[in-house]
Amino acid sequence: MPWIQAHLTTSKEQAPLIELLFENLGALSTTLEDAEDEPLLEPKPGEAPIWKVTRITGLFDGDINSDELRNQINHTLNSDVTPTLELEVLEDQEWERAWLDNFHAMSFGSRLWICPQGKQPDQEGAVVVELDPGLAFGTGTHPTTGLCLQWLDRTPLEGLELIDFGCGSGILAVAALKLGAQRVYATDHDPQAMQASEANAIKNRVSDRLQLCGSREQLPPRPVDIVLANILAGTLVELEEHIASLTKTGGRVVLSGILSEQAERVSNCYTSHFDMAPPIQQEEWILLEGVKR
Ligand SMILES: C[S@@+](CC[C@H](N)C(=O)[O-])C[C@H]1O[C@@H](n2cnc3c(N)ncnc32)[C@H](O)[C@@H]1O
User: Which of 253, 261, 263, 279 has the fewest CB atoms below 10 angstroms from its CB?
Assistant: First the structure.
């Protein structure tokens, strides 16, 4: 069955009104997207900030009369918004497959692969993480995750204990376990991340070595060999004391989620407890590594 999509571009202030209008006109769903290029990085749980200029899409049943829909929208809204109105027919397809078609097996370093469930790489000795990110961050497509995965791939992890601070989908925790880490403690302040991490650990048969820590207090009382934290620069700076207390002397910290212009500030902050290595860059993102003194 085809669908009809109505798109409108509007201001942050008008967006909730248009969303409500679409719902009142029978939209089965509404989607809000950035109409320009304004990244909204890591809102806190429960926060749903929207963009200064937002594109709203209402998805309607294909049986509705599109001329009538256009008239109702034009009639209700100000003339400064309605010129952006576009209606289009969306043909039905196997939506589950459409998502998977855009999520291919990806390799990181010499042997680590992130694969959608059921897809296997054609490489002998490959270490495969089967992943379903659910609603959490972390498919490997973002350079910050990629930098951490490449770091894990080139680092001997056998027998080591790690903390994955801000675990998202659990991608780094599961990869570390598959690469031989003895135990990983994973934490995130977003409950959906904890759910996704648990599901991915079970899918990859490593849940017996993953300890999910729903709060910082549940992290191990003794420091570990490696702390991974792919969060944002500001949060990494705030967490420096805490992350240092979680890292053994001689242990390592691996930080990502840092834009190139923020690297110096984060590195300087971490020199209070760590000997920092030169930054590693991919696109505009940085990975920093340090050894605890
Ligand atoms: C950029 S994602 C990284 C996810 C995954 N580790 C990866 O590398 O793809 C950052 C994650 O950190 C979590 N996070 C941000 N600030 C946090 C904090 N102060 N404490 C715990 N988790 C936090 C977010 O909820 C998000 O899941």
Answer: 261
**Any ligand 1 atom below 6 A from CB of 145:** yes
Q: Determine whether the shortest distance from the Cβ of 226 to ligand 1 is under 6 A.
A: no
What is the count of structural domains for the chain?
2
87, 106: one domain: no
- The reply to whether 77 and 109 lie within a common domain is no
CATH of the domain at 19: 3.30.70.260
- In this structure, are 179 and 246 located in the same domain? yes
131 Cα: distance to centroid of ligand 1 (angstroms): 17
What is the residue with the minimal CA distance to atom 6 of ligand 1?
Answer: 167
142 and 78: one domain? no
Check pocket membership of 84 for ligand 1, CB cut-off 6 A. Answer: no
Residue nearest to atom 4 of ligand 1 (CA): 168
Q: What is the CATH number of the domain that holds 184?
A: 3.40.50.150
Is the Cα dihedral 70, 71, 74, 76 positive or negative? negative
Residues 18 and 107 both lie in one domain: no
Name the residue at shortest CA distance from atom 1 of ligand 1: 231
**Boundaries of domain holding 188:** 99-292
Instruction: Please report the pLDDT score of residue 135 as a whole number.
Output: 56
CA of 171 to the centre of ligand 1 (A): 11
Pocket test for ligand 1, best of 188, 227, 241, 255 (most atoms within 8 A of CB): 188
User: Whole-model pTM above 0.85?
Assistant: no
Q: Are residues 245 and 213 in the same domain?
A: yes
Nearest atom in ligand 1 to the alpha carbon of residue 188 is: 22
